[in-house]
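Sequence of Thioredoxin domain-containing protein (Streptomyces mirabilis).
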Amino acid sequence: MVQLHLDESPRTAAEYDVRSIPTLNVDRNGRVVKTVIGAKPRSALEQEPAGVPEVTGL
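Predicted 3D structure, token representation.
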């Protein structure tokens, strides 16, 4: 898990197309495979649809 401060890293934010805060990008093998935008409780993140089965324990 990495936290990025957009004001300090605008280039990185643009590279990952971060337009809203908060944004959670799930990365697999160097590729973003899922993006979750907006604040959600832990329980909602744990119930996200399949496609990222290795992401657990958020």
